[in-house]
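Retro notes (design track)

What went well: tokenization of the new backbones is finally stable.
What didn't: we kept losing track of which sequence belonged to which structure.
Fix going forward: every design gets posted as structure first, then sequence, in one message. First example under the new rule, 541 residues:
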């Protein structure tokens, strides 16, 4: 996601998320930290929200694969981007006490459950490679409402207060992680204040830094016994005041930064000696399920390209755009941002990719946004016949600096008629960057089907096609090959029988409806899907 203007560049299953600070309380070998990922609109997250009585769960969720679904994600990206103007080798996994699964929720952001303090308080926080500070609702003066949460969920999702935790410690203004020592005043009682501005729509978080324990578990490969419980002191933001999209459903319960600044989760884990390598990986499944592992430096044979620029963003360079066997030279840089729903390209890169893709598809272009409440975000869409069961999608990849191919395994989205429960079309899922910022963004959709490795130690981005369920590499991946993508292959557009709780089309979007039938969730939550790319960092790219 993008970075805010800030001194801190800044149920089933959900995951624990954290900023682990400088010291580890319980002894343990250096290893990696892991958890699974789910999509914000996924059935898993919906069941969690409904079981917990979360206020947003009462609204109708846009059906996966519908135009409302994609419009919601697009509004999320545009709102937050506009306002910014912008492991192999480890001997075990360090996971969170709540488990190592994560969920993808509104806006294609990935969320995790984190437990901090004594007794532990639990939060569902967004995971963001475009910002650094980890913060949770705390001693709230203005936070997203959890008034409708009842029963067991009421104890699992509650605002945190340092006064209620026996292990909390004050972070004073002379602490090395305090970026605003001159802002200390009698009002903060000696605690280091923080404030993160997210540029547009008056979105921000502010409060004071605090240190407390993060609940973790160290797992060993092949071990049958339960992992070793650990408590690691962490420094994070006690978010007393949230504004803008944080009050409308985006990162309503906190945010974990994964950027390269000293306060970010990976930085603190590496500084503490908790992981063997200053790196982490994120696996993105095609159904919104994935994993994240801290300390994972990837594997031999993965594709790699160096980070470029002096920004704390994960910026890389590309040299060509490949659509099937056609390769077009294109020198451009882009930020790898897991917190942005879609990929944004400026011209001429956008036009080169889109027109080459369009020239190879067999179906006729169609306009699916006619009469809908919100503009449909994609320009290149195609209609399929009622009895059509598959389409031939051109293969897409990007050649990176150094020659390795970055494969785009899912450059399209399927549109479905939720009433007839069938596919009616598909779209090339890229957006033209007309937001007024000189920045290309490789969003979460271009990382689907990959395990992406952020190797900060070697300053390289790695990737390989990956099965997030089996935690194994896909054998036919051409990740490191410098040759163009293989020819297009047929793609099934029939519903999956095992899509439990879904519409049978994982990753698909419902057909846009008329303004009178506007989806409530798309309206209330769509803009809240955060893309937190910070303008200050983007300016250094």
């Amino acid at each position: 996601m993008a970075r805010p203007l800030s001194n801190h560049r800044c149920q089933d299953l959900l995951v624990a998320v954290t900023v682990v600070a400088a010291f580890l309380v319980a002894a343990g070998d250096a290893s990696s930290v892991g958890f699974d990922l789910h999509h914000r609109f996924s059935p898993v997250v919906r069941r969690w929200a409904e079981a917990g009585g979360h206020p947003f769960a009462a609204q109708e969720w846009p059906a996966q694969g519908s135009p409302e679904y994609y419009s919601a994600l697009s509004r999320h990206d545009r709102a937050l981007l506009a306002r910014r103007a912008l492991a192999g080798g480890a001997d075990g996994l360090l996971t969170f006490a709540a488990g190592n699964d994560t969920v993808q929720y509104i806006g294609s952001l990935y969320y995790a459950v984190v437990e901090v303090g004594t007794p532990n308080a639990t939060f569902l926080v967004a995971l963001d490679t475009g910002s650094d500070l980890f913060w949770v609702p705390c001693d709230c003066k203005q936070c997203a409402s959890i008034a409708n949460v009842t029963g067991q969920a009421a104890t699992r999702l509650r605002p945190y207060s340092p006064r209620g935790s026996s292990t909390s410690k004050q972070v004073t203004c002379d602490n090395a992680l305090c970026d605003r020592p001159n802002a200390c005043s009698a009002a903060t009682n000696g605690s280091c204040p923080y404030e993160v501005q997210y540029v547009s729509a008056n979105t921000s978080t502010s409060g004071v830094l605090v240190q407390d324990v993060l609940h973790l578990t160290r797992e060993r490969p092949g071990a049958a016994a339960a992992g070793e419980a650990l408590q690691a002191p962490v420094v994070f933001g006690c978010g007393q005041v949230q504004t803008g999209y944080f009050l409308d459903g985006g990162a309503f319960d906190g945010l974990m930064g994964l950027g390269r600044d000293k306060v970010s989760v990976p930085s603190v884990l590496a500084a503490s000696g908790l992981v063997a390598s200053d790196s982490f990986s994120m696996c993105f499944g095609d159904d919104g399920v994935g994993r994240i592992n801290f300390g994972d430096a990837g594997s031999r044979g993965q594709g790699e390209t160096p980070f470029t620029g002096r920004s704390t963003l994960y910026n890389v360079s590309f040299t060509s755009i490949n659509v099937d066997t056609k390769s077009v030279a294109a020198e451009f840089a882009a930020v790898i941002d897991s917190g942005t729903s879609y990929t944004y390209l400026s011209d001429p890169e956008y036009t080169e990719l889109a027109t080459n893709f369009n020239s190879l598809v067999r179906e006729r272009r169609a306009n699916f946004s006619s009469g809908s409440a919100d503009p449909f975000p994609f320009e290149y869409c195609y209609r399929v016949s009622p009895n059509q069961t598959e389409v031939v999608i051109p293969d897409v990849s990007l050649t990176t600096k150094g020659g390795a191919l970055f494969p785009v395994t899912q450059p399209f989205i399927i549109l479905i008629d939720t009433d007839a429960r069938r596919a009616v079309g598909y779209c090339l899922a890229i957006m033209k960057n007309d937001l007024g910022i000189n920045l290309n963004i490789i969003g979460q959709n271009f990382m689907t089907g990959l395990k992406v490795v952020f190797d900060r130690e070697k300053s390289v981005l790695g990737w390989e096609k990956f099965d997030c369920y089996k935690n194994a590499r896909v054998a036919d991946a051409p990740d490191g090959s410098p040759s163009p993508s293989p020819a297009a292959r047929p793609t099934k557009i029939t519903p999956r029988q095992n899509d439990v709780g879904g519409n049978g089309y994982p990753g698909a979007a419902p057909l846009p409806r008329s303004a009178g039938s506007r989806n409530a969730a798309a309206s209330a939550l769509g803009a809240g899907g955060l893309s937190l790319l910070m303008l200050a960092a983007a300016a250094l790219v």
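Added context from the reviewer: Residues 188 and 208 are 7 Å apart (CA to CA).
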